[in-house]
Amino acid sequence: MTGQPLPGFRDFFPEDHSTLRSLFSAWREASRRSGFVEFEGPELEALELYTEKSGEEIIGQLYHFKDKGDREVALRPELTPTLARMVAARHRNYRKPIKWFSIPRLFRYERPQRGRHREHYQWNCDIVGEKGAAADAELIATLCLGLSLLGLGPKDVVVKVSDRGWWDLFLADQGVKEEKRAEVLRILDKLEGAPTEEWKKKLGALAEPIGNALDSKIALSEGLEQVRQAVGALGYADWCEVDLRIVRGLAYYTGIVFEVHDRAGKLRAVAGGGRYDHLLKKLGGEDLPATGFGMGDAVLSELLTEKKFLRAESTPPAIFVVAESAERNLALQIAGNLRRNGEAVDYDPGSGKWVKQLELAEARGARWALLVGREAAQGKLLVKELATRKQGEIAFRKSADGAISLEPGVGDWAKVVAS
Amino acid sequence: MTGQPLPGFRDFFPEDHSTLRSLFSAWREASRRSGFVEFEGPELEALELYTEKSGEEIIGQLYHFKDKGDREVALRPELTPTLARMVAARHRNYRKPIKWFSIPRLFRYERPQRGRHREHYQWNCDIVGEKGAAADAELIATLCLGLSLLGLGPKDVVVKVSDRGWWDLFLADQGVKEEKRAEVLRILDKLEGAPTEEWKKKLGALAEPIGNALDSKIALSEGLEQVRQAVGALGYADWCEVDLRIVRGLAYYTGIVFEVHDRAGKLRAVAGGGRYDHLLKKLGGEDLPATGFGMGDAVLSELLTEKKFLRAESTPPAIFVVAESAERNLALQIAGNLRRNGEAVDYDPGSGKWVKQLELAEARGARWALLVGREAAQGKLLVKELATRKQGEIAFRKSADGAISLEPGVGDWAKVVAS
């Protein structure tokens, strides 16, 4: 046993997991406030679910294998095909538009690098059954709300919005045939960082008109204008700008597309999404318009770390019960009672000495040590606030059914030690 | 695309996911109150991590394959080997005993049947670094607390406790050689449901002494007596009984073992666990005593469904904003403001008519419809409680920075419609 996870995979020790949970909390809270409901699918799906959507070339990036029932299966690289499958199976049960979110764990066999692992968590929000750009705006606003709950604002990130529909019309206008458009979009997709001379050469006669379009920072299409207005009304105008270089490589996007980047432009995209109106039908489901986004935990964590915004959602026990060995049974009774009353309570399950128990109480980060010592014979206990080392006395009483009540209750211990 | 997940896998539609979340909430809350901290590991691990623990025969039940880097990998069938790996890597950073919990998703290639799928979620709690039976008792109490938070009590379930250490001594006493003991334990493990004549025949001369031991409902070992006392002090005496038939098949258990069953005895085990003091060292880690349990979501859900205790943790939006088309922009501003203030707010992103928007508000289960109509010109809005159809008027005000305040706030709308 090497002690290490597989390359590209991550161990989440408690201190790592508490920061991960702070992301999940923000994602769930933004989803809840925005009226999305949570769903989840299997992590293993039939391989064809992915090849039907993305072609055979996706196989090179997948964890896939033949299971013991001779089925070609794959660990999900994304949630959208599962969403399409589930919507196809039961969409009649749900009033449109369907607003679903999920925080799936996703897998890709890629070279591990900064901000890119072989597994990650991804916040997904999708709206199915609404074709208007207001749905795209709703997604962008939800995404901004989620980022703001993590402390990020328009000075830290920018939502770059574009319109694949506009590109289709523009390229048709320029006489680029349908089968050639994907190639142009691929060049646009790699534009960031590419030397101007190089992409101009690649685009040939298209270089000038495309260059002019790219310089525009204002809405060029009806869809972009609707998004601008609705995102503005929802309160996120200063988070967004039009950037037509955003085309989101994948062939299936049909309308508004967007990516979130750090303002400094140092990291990979924090999130990306857009409208995929034909995908559900293509995957054998209903012909329903759809739009959605995904936001991974990895790049976001990098950005939050850099901004020093990354918070841990830590839950130390409120109370640590310290007991003399003769009072061990009473200590357990008190711990059990407090827990049933909703308090977070820990104690040393070993037979550690008094001072060792107190050390463990501090190591656990407990606010209070509840000391069950000789005073217990007189119905008394001591409470000690570990940070201030202030101490006070409380009383306890056992009722006939074994329940133990403390006088005063935990909420008033601060007064006890202050006096 | 079939519309169905792979055999043995589950889709969690929003209504399914909300019940799943109610399990997770109870598990997390019981863990928190009991001083366990959450961790998580990768879902894909090196195959040898599992064969080292359980032998080559485990391979038959695993999802395993060779990845593109020619590594033999497996989807985790359980969390313990990952825990062992992680503890080995960093245990010096943590004060003992380590109390960790997790809610991993686990995978097993088995014939799908009632209460057993090919993937499931499992609540895991482990205590590492404490050898006394008090740690086993702490786990049992945590497990009982979790079940009680779901509405279950000692009338619904029983924790059957046994001691593998006692069996080792007993069998040695009976002259059963070490290499033969596993075979006897395997017979004991299959005892439930087996005809008495059959197992008596299999056990031969051991049948009588074993039969006598099995009839005992009281503590037979020091460990069992310590568990009885500590679990009793923690408040769960009536949940537990000694049942020596519980041996937990797997060879690595060394002391106290336990299983949770429904009292009626109709279902598979709801949870199981015990002490595995030699496993961490065997897996190449430190020689630390350890004990833990796992509780899956599937059998538990069956039991809760049967008892009609299964609750959905549903989160309908509190407010659904309904707008006349001329007031659409104002409606979005109000929605954005309310969401930033922490309210769950939905609206129709389409251009639906007034009555269609109200229908959607009801379908979403919103408590309030906030009606943005002609009164808006006078700074007024109507609020409607959808369940009672009672209605009242509130005012709104826009400040210079675009923030919108409602008068009175959401918390007082009940008074507005009552008057």
CATH third-tier fold name of the largest domain in chain A: BirA Bifunctional Protein, domain 2
- CA-based shape of chain A: elongated
Largest interface, counted by CB within 8 Å of the partner chain's CB:
A-B, 106 and 106 residues
Strand content of chain A: 15-25%
Give the structural class of chain A: alpha+beta
Which second-level CATH architecture of the largest domain in chain A applies?
A: 2-Layer Sandwich
Separation of the first and last Cα atoms of chain A: 55 Å
Radius of gyration of chain A: 28 Å
Helix fraction of chain A?
25-40%
Looking at CATH, the homologous superfamily of the largest domain in chain A is: Bira Bifunctional Protein, Domain 2
Please summarize the sheet with the most strands of chain A.
9 strands, mixed
Description:
The structure is a homodimer of 419-residue chains. In chain A, the strands form 3 sheets. In chain A, strands 1, 5, 6, 7, 8, 9, 10, 11 and 12 form a 9-stranded mixed β-sheet that branches. Chain A has 2 domains: 256 residues, BirA Bifunctional Protein, domain 2 (2-Layer Sandwich), CATH 3.30.930.10; 100 residues, Rossmann fold. Chain A has 419 residues and is α+β, with helices and mostly antiparallel strands. In chain A, a hairpin with a 5-residue loop joins strand 3 and strand 4. Chain A contains 14 helices and 18 strands. In chain A, 46% of the residues are buried. The mean pLDDT of chain A is 93. The interface between A and B is large, with 106 and 106 residues.
